[in-house]
User: Fold this.
Amino acid sequence: MKSISIIGGGFSAWLIASIFIKKKFSVNVFEGENLHFGSQQISPNGWKALTQIVDKEDIKPVFEAFNAIHIKKINSEEILELLSNYDLTNNDEVYGSISRENLVNILKQQVLSNKDVKIYSSLINHIIDSDNKIELLDTKKRIFETDFVIGADGTQGASRKFVVGSNKQTNLKKIFRAISLDTSSYNLAKKTLQILLHSQGYFVIYPTIIKNKKATNYIFVPTDNNVSPPIFDSELLNYLIPNKLNWQISLVGNNTNEITSIFKKGVFLFGEAAFPTLPHLAQGGNQILEDAIFLKDFLENNNNFNEMVESFIQNRSKQREIINQKSKIVGKALSSQKITGYFRNLAIQSKGKKLIEDIFNQVWIS
Ligand SMILES: Cc1cc2nc3c(=O)[nH]c(=O)nc-3n(C[C@H](O)[C@H](O)[C@H](O)COP(=O)(O)OP(=O)(O)OC[C@H]3O[C@@H](n4cnc5c(N)ncnc54)[C@H](O)[C@@H]3O)c2cc1C
Assistant:
């Protein structure tokens, strides 16, 4: 039986492991650190994919569904003006949020229920191409031999360095993330995904469940890297966006024109390691779920790893490129200021529902 080593301890690693445990491969997972912060949106396409991989009943208790998408403007008097309200209750599709920790735990439990999987609490820092095998060297200087590697260790992992030649990203964009367990914030955020446009950037706010508690998830995307999340005087706005939020900074690659290879000498990149994705459409994780379904379906009839990779590249790369380009356009529109921002607001006010449908329907249905 051929061996597959999965590098990474995040969402992609456990997701791809749960696809391969049921196939004719021996599976090793090299789990790095578990650094899961906050929640992520599961859009209808992601929900459809996720529920083909794990039992719906395991997800429901930790899933917070949205009823609507609101796009609002925070004006100079710190008053919220509703520009568009998109009702999700008429849709059959499910849209909501799940914490990264819960998502990883559900996938991990599924993998651990399979006795044949070997898990190593190990950080792989070198991949060596050696004749017909691949050697993995961890930080404890141990060497592991394997037939294939799935590199799900993010944009800065050893896998991307091996396949692409570098794991250093350029043109990084600062994004702020925070969580609040405050009840008044949750009550104001309840059941709604809110996009709030501000002169210094935009907020994305939605309800979620963190460690069994009702919570609110915040993202602030600044107009540029020198801007920090604004502080508000308005009491009402402070209920929704408390000034005392403990913002964490993430740096995401902004270079969507860069197309790199995702496979080299038996090492196949998966997840963020393969396709670094801009966050403006909240599709990073949702697209990874779709990638996993593609691989799952392929493996139903064919266990040839190299053919699987070839088919994946042919069928999924283009879609990933399109999503990133769309994400870039949406990010630019949401960050527009002055005259462009003024016309954007008018367009959202008059055609908000149609705009949301035009952007998202193609993404959600894919
Ligand atoms: C601000 C923001 C908001 C987002 N919102 C959404 C959203 O709403 N919906 C959505 O679908 N997506 C969203 N995303 C994208 C989503 O978070 C990512 O697509 C997803 O986290 C990628 O998971 P990953 O496991 O591929 O990579 P990562 O999360 O980067 O995980 C990589 C893992 O590999 C481990 N690792 C690294 N190096 C090594 C090594 N050498 N050896 C072993 N292990 C190693 C790390 O410890 C880590 O656990 C968002 C992203 C950002 C930045």
Residues 7-13, 30, 32-33, 35, 40-41, 46, 123-125, 152-154, 157-158, 175, 177, 219, 250, 252, 271-272, 277, 279, 282-286, 288 surround flavin-adenine dinucleotide (CB under 6 Å).
